[in-house]
Design goal:
alpha/beta; Rossmann fold; six-stranded mixed β-sheet; three-stranded antiparallel β-sheet; 21% helix; binds inosinic acid; binds magnesium ion
Amino acid sequence: MYDKKVEKVLITREQIEKRTDELAKRISEDYKGKRLIMICVLTGAMVFFADLIRKIDVPLEVDTIVASSYGSGTTTSGSVRISKDIKYDISGKSVILVEDIIDTGVTLKTLTKMLMTRAPESLRVCALLDKPSRRKVDFEGDYVGFSIPDEFVVGYGLDYAEQYRNLPEVCIYRPDGE
Ligand code: IMP
Ligand code: MG
């Protein structure tokens, strides 16, 4: 299944599973007695989201959002827009936005700013991965799975040109590999 551009496994299934358990436990404790709306940022976060929500033991509803950034390849350009909005009214609600990776931070900064205008009771961000060395805007996730070096990664929902989302672990991708 792997081609030579997929260089090596950075995070194994076992590591992902263990860390997802930990994040879900923290979320379950932090939101005890609350009702939660969890928003999956499509498409990259869908695999992580599906695993995460099944480990959370407070009542929750799920919603989805699609953000598109202009630009292609392995970087995010400056402007992000919402191409599919959530269906719920989040005003007064406890909301967690779930993303695959925080890279420059532009996507999540834009999304959280926009969602905050709808007056949720609270809004936090959970991301599987974080590349802090790539940040262009000031942004921090509230629940972060793994902090990783500046490498392009694929698998477990993350893609390169829409490929590799189905790999079960997080792998380093090298476009010039043969
Ligand atoms: P940001 O706006 O730069 O933080 O970019 C976030 C988005 O860029 C993520 O939701 C991913 O879709 C994409 N992205 C950033 N780094 C990677 C990566 O290493 N692999 C796959 N997608 C990535
Ligand atoms: Mg994404």
